[in-house]
Design brief:
heterotrimer, A alpha+beta, B alpha+beta, C alpha/beta, A: alpha+beta, three-stranded antiparallel sheet, about 45% helix, about 15% strand, B: Beta Polymerase, domain 2
Chain lengths: ~450, ~240, ~180
C-alpha cells in the first residue's frame, strides 16, 4: 500500500493515493466533484472495477476494466478471492480424507474433483485395473449426472447474468431432480465425498435404479422448457451470437479445453482420447459447434447434457451385482454405512463383523481410519474431462500416509485467461456473456 | 546411491540428482519416550528413479526427437536432459533452467512432437534436497499424437530463477504467477509476475514446506482439538 | 428511525414496535454475498422448490444499499474479508447478518492460513447456520428464526434498554470453552 494516503471524512474507502504511476483517485459515490479540480490537465484512464461482489460476474471474480464509453479497451481478471488453501491442507490429511477437501474445490462438479483425485491415487497405488467394474460404472454414472447438473447451473446462471430470469428458475428446478438422486445415493446433495480411492463409499441403495430411470424420463421434457425459451430466441441470440469469439488457434495458444474448445469445431474430449473408468466402452458422441461464440457454447452444453443422459442409461443397463470397493483390505475403505434409528452410521452387519467375527477386519478398520494406507513414492498426472474442460491432478507421494504435494490444474483457472482475448474491443455488457460462456467456478479457480 | 545387484547400473552423477525422502520413525511429532521400537526406523524412498535407455514404447521416439532438435539449436546432446525418469507409465524429463526454453520450443514446434498444450506449472518444495529444493513441473500434452510427458526443472532456494515460457505457451501466464505466489520461484521474463491468489501485500510463500498451515486450535465444551499440523501424524 | 424512536415507552411504542417488526421481517431483502458452495444452496432456496419468495425475499439486491440482510454464504478468504466489511458498511441500517454454512460461522473444515475463521471476526453476526452446505430447508429455518428475532426487536428507549441487557448477558456468559464436561 502507498504511504501517502489521504481520506475524506465522509467515506473511509474514498480518497486518493500517490503511486509510482501518478495519483489514483478512488470515488465511491456522490464525490465525483472531488476529482475534477485535482485531475485537471491529467490524461484520464478510467479504470472501472466490477466485483468481486457482483451479481453478474459468476462468482467472486474481480474484473478490472478500462473503458472508453461503452467499449472495453482492456480487461483483466483479479482472482484469489476464494482461495482456501486446499492444496496445502491436503498435505495434513490422509489420502482418503483428502477426498472431502478436494470435493469442495469446483463445487458445481464435486464428483469430477473426487474422481480425478481418486484416479491419481489409484495410479500411484497401481490398482487401476483392480477397481471393480461396478464401482467404475457407478463412477461414470455419478459423473455424467453431475455433468448434467453442472451444465444446468451454467445455463441458469448464464441466463440470469444476461437478464433471462426464467431459465434460472427452470435450470434450478431441473437441478433439484438430479440433486434428489445424489441425496438418495450418497446422502448429500452436494459435496458428498462419495468416490473414494479404491472405489465408491457405498453401494447404490434399493430403488435407486428405478428412481434414476424415472428422472431420466422426466429430464428431457423439462429441458425442453429451457431450450424452447432460449434457442432461436431473437433477444437471446442478439446478446450471444458473435459475442466472445475465440477461434481454434487462440484456444490452443491459451491451452483452453472443454466446451470453449469444442465450440470452435474441434472435437477434443478426454473421455474419447484418453479414456478412464471404462469410458471407451460407452457409446456416445462428442458434440461440437463451429461458431466459436457464446450462442454456440450454449447450444453445445444442451447437446452435452443429452449425450450425458445417453451415457447414464447405458450405465443403468450395465450395472451388475458386485463389490464396489477394491478387494485389497489394506486399502479398501472398510465401513459399510446404513441408515439406523439415530441417523446414518456403520451398518450393524459391519459392526458385528469387526467386533465379533474377524480380528483382521477390526485391525484394518482401525488402521485405515486413523492412519490411512501408504502410497508408494512417486508422482503422477491424471486428467479427466470435467464439464469445464480438462481437470488435471499432479500428485506427489513420498511413500507415506499423506500426500506430499497435490496440485489441481483446474480448467476454469486456465480458461479465465481468455477473458481479455474475448472482451477487449467489445462492449461492457458482452463481457458478462463471454465469461458466462466460459462458466468458471471460482472455487476451482482459486482453490 | 549404492548400486543394487538386480537393478540397472546408475551412472555416477545420478546420485547428485536423486530426490530421496528419508523418514525416521513411525509417528510424528513424537514427544520422546516412544517405546514402540519404531522410533529408530529409517526408510528411504526414491521419488524419481533414473531410467536407462531403451525406455520402451514411444518414449524413445520422443526423447530422441527432443535431443536431436535441441542439438540442432545448439545444445550439446549429452546435457539436454539432466535425467530421465519413467514411473507408473509416465516419463519425466529433468531439464536445467538454462535449457528449458529451448526444450519447450522444440516440444511445441517439432512435427513429430507437437506438444501443443502445456498444462500449467506446478511447484513442489523438497526442503531436504539441498541445492535443488524447488521443482517446477510442467505437464505437457500433445493433442496430435495423443500423448503426455512431463518436464521438471529444479532450482535452489538461494537462486530460484527459472526462465518464463509465457511467450512459447501463453496459457502459462497465470500458472507461473501462481507458482511464484505459492513457492517463490521467480520466472524471468514473465510480463507481470505478481501475486494472484494471495492478497498483493501478503508476506511469504504459503505452500512451501517451511510455511505453517496457519490453523488455530479449536476449543469446544472443554475439549481442545489442535490445529491440523499439530496433530499426531503417521509417517 | 425518526419520530417513532422519540415516542415515550408504553402502549403506543409497543404497538409501533409490533408493526415495525412485522413490516421489517415480511420483506427482508437479502444482499447477494454468495461466495462458494453455500451460494449455490442459497440460489436453490430462491428457486422454485424451496421458494424464498413466500417470505418476501426473492429479490436478492445486487446493491447493498438496498438490502437489509447479508447472507454470508461460503468461505471468506483473507483477500475477501475487506470486501465483506465494505459491503456491510455500505448497507444502511437496520441490517442483519446471517452466517450461512460452517465456513462462514467458524472457518469450517478449512482451518488454515487462507480462510477467516468465522465472519464474526469481520462483521457482527445475528444468526449462525451450520451445515456443509446447509440444506435449503435449514436456511429457511434460520431465516424464520431471524424473522422471530426481528419482529421482537424493540424501538427507541426500549431498544436502548434491550441492547444494554444483551451486552450485560453476553459479557457475563460462560464461554463454550469453559463449559467442561459437556462432551459425552
Amino acid at each position: 500500500m502507498s504511504e501517502q494516503t489521504t481520506h475524506s471524512t465522509a467515506d473511509p474507502y474514498a480518497g486518493f493515493t500517490d503511486t509510482t504511476e501518478g495519483r489514483v483517485h478512488t470515488v465511491t459515490g456522490q464525490d465525483w466533484d472531488t476529482i475534477t479540480g485535482a485531475a485537471a490537465g491529467q490524461t484520464e484512464r478510467l479504470v472501472v472495477n466490477m466485483g468481486p461482489q457482483h451479481p453478474s460476474t459468476h462468482g467472486v471474480l474481480r474484473l478490472i476494466l478500462e473503458i472508453e464509453g461503452e467499449t472495453v479497451t482492456e480487461a483483466r481478471c483479479g482472482i484469489g478471492y476464494l482461495h482456501t488453501g486446499i492444496e496445502k491442507n491436503l498435505e495434513y490429511r490422509t489420502w482418503t480424507q483428502g477426498v472431502t477437501f478436494v470435493t469442495r474445490m469446483d463445487y458445481l462438479s464435486p464428483f469430477f474433483n473426487e474422481t480425478a483425485y481418486c484416479l491419481a491415487v489409484e495410479k500411484l497405488l497401481g490398482i487401476t485395473d483392480q477397481i471393480p467394474e461396478r464401482a467404475n460404472v457407478i463412477r461414470v454414472m455419478m459423473m455424467e449426472l453431475n455433468r448434467i447438473s453442472s451444465h444446468l447451473v451454467a445455463l441458469a446462471t448464464g441466463g440470469m447474468e444476461l437478464g433471462a430470469l426464467s431459465p434460472m428458475i427452470f435450470g434450478f428446478r431441473e437441478r433439484e431432480l438430479v440433486l434428489d438422486l445424489f441425496e438418495l445415493i450418497t446422502g448429500l446433495r452436494m459435496n458428498s465425498a462419495y468416490i473414494r480411492p479404491g472405489g465408491v463409499a457405498q453401494d447404490l441403495p434399493d430403488g435407486a435404479v428405478e428412481k434414476i430411470r424415472e428422472t431420466l424420463d422426466l429430464l428431457p421434457k423439462r429441458l425442453k422448457d429451457t431450450s424452447d425459451l432460449l434457442v432461436d430466441n431473437q433477444i437471446w441470440m442478439g446478446r450471444t451470437v458473435g459475442i466472445g469469439f475465440l477461434d481454434l488457434p487462440t484456444c490452443m495458444a491459451l491451452g483452453i479445453t472443454g466446451p470453449v474448445l469444442r465450440s470452435t469445431g474441434f472435437a477434443h474430449d478426454l473421455r474419447k482420447s484418453q479414456p478412464y473408468c471404462g469410458y471407451e466402452t460407452y457409446d456416445f458422441d462428442v458434440p461440437t459447434v463451429d461458431t466459436c461464440d457464446v450462442y454456440g457454447r450454449f447450444l453445445l452444453r444442451i447437446r452435452e447434457m443429452q449425450e450425458s443422459m445417453k451415457i447414464v442409461r447405458q450405465c443403468l443397463d450395465r450395472l451388475k451385482p458386485g463389490p464396489v470397493m477394491v478387494e485389497d483390505a489394506k486399502i479398501a475403505w472398510p465401513a459399510q454405512l446404513a441408515v439406523g434409528s439415530d441417523g446414518m452410521g456403520n451398518s450393524l452387519a459391519h459392526i458385528r463383523n469387526i467386533m465379533a467375527e474377524s480380528m483382521e477386519a477390526l485391525i484394518h478398520h482401525f488402521k485405515l481410519v486413523t492412519e490411512g494406507f501408504r502410497v508408494p513414492a512417486g508422482q503422477v498426472y491424471q486428467a479427466i474431462e470435467s464439464p469445464r474442460g480438462e481437470l488435471g491432478v499432479h500428485m506427489v507421494s513420498d511413500g507415506g500416509t499423506r500426500p506430499y504435494r497435490v496440485h489441481f490444474r483446474d480448467p476454469s483457472f486456465n480458461n479465465l485467461q481468455a477473458t481479455a482475448a474475448m472482451s477487449e474491443g467489445g462492449q461492457v455488457a458482452d463481457i458478462i456473456g463471454a465469461i458466462a460462456s466460459i462458466d468458471p467456478v471460482m472455487g476451482g479457480v482459486d482453490r | 546411491m549404492t548400486n543394487q545387484p538386480n537393478l540397472p547400473v546408475v551412472p555416477e552423477n545420478a546420485a547428485l540428482l536423486d530426490t530421496v525422502v528419508t523418514k525416521h520413525g513411525m509417528f510424528s511429532p513424537s514427544a520422546g519416550g516412544d517405546t514402540s521400537g519404531f522410533g529408530g526406523l529409517v526408510e528411504r524412498f526414491e521419488l524419481a528413479p533414473a531410467a536407462m535407455k531403451p525406455f520402451g514404447g514411444w518414449f524413445d521416439d520422443v526423447s530422441d526427437a527432443i535431443v536431436k532438435a535441441a542439438a540442432a539449436k545448439g545444445l550439446p546432446t549429452e546435457s539436454v536432459f539432466e535425467r530421465v525418469s519413467i514411473d507408473r507409465g509416465e516419463i519425466t524429463f529433468f531439464v536445467s533452467p538454462q535449457n528449458l526454453r529451448t526444450v519447450m520450443q522444440v516440444l511445441r514446434d517439432e512435427p513429430s512432437l507437437r506438444f501443443e498444450m502445456c498444462m500449467g506449472v506446478n511447484g513442489v518444495h523438497y526442503p531436504f534436497e539441498t541445492g535443488r529444493e524447488l521443482h517446477a513441473v510442467y505437464p505437457m500434452q500433445s493433442v496430435t499424437h495423443n500423448r503426455r510427458v512431463r518436464v521438471e526443472v529444479a532450482v535452489s532456494d538461494d537462486n530460484p530463477h527459472i526462465p518464463s515460457i509465457v511467450d512459447i505457451y501463453p496459457g502459462n501466464n497465470w500458472h507461473e504467477r501462481e507458482t511464484w505466489d505459492f513457492f517463490g520461484i521467480v520466472f524471468d521474463g514473465h510480463p507481470g509476475l505478481t501475486r494472484i491468489e494471495m492478497p498483493d501485500d501478503w508476506p511469504g510463500h504459503p505452500q512451501r514446506k517451511d510455511y505453517p498451515l496457519g490453523g488455530i486450535d479449536i476449543e469446544y465444551k472443554g475439549a481442545t482439538v489442535p490445529a491440523p499440523d499439530k496433530r499426531r501424524s503417521y509417517s | 428511525m425518526g419520530i417513532e424512536e422519540k415516542l415515550p415507552s408504553g402502549f403506543l411504542l409497543t404497538t409501533v414496535e409490533k408493526f415495525a417488526g412485522y413490516a421489517r421481517k415480511s420483506a427482508l431483502w437479502p444482499a447477494t454475498f454468495g461466495l462458494a458452495c453455500c451460494a449455490i444452496e442459497m440460489m436453490t432456496t430462491g428457486g422454485a422448490r424451496y421458494d424464498l419468495a413466500r417470505f418476501g425475499m426473492e429479490v436478492f439486491r445486487a446493491s447493498p444499499r438496498q438490502a437489509d440482510l447479508m447472507i454470508v454464504a461460503g468461505r471468506v478468504s483473507q483477500k475477501m474479508a475487506p470486501v465483506l466489511r465494505q459491503i456491510y458498511d455500505q448497507m444502511p441500517g437496520p441490517k442483519w447478518v446471517l452466517a450461512m454454512g460452517v465456513c462462514a460461522s467458524s472457518g469450517g473444515m478449512f482451518n488454515n492460513y487462507a480462510v477467516v475463521q468465522g465472519v464474526d471476526h469481520v462483521v457482527p453476526v445475528d444468526i449462525y447456520l451450520p451445515g456443509c452446505p446447509p440444506r435449503p430447508e435449514m436456511l429457511i429455518d434460520a431465516i424464520l428464526k431471524l424473522h422471530d428475532q426481528i419482529s421482537d426487536t424493540k424501538l427507541g428507549k426500549n431498544r436502548v434498554r434491550e441492547i444494554e441487557n444483551i451486552e450485560r448477558e453476553a459479557l457475563s456468559a460462560a464461554p463454550t470453552s469453559a463449559m467442561k464436561g459437556l462432551l459425552r
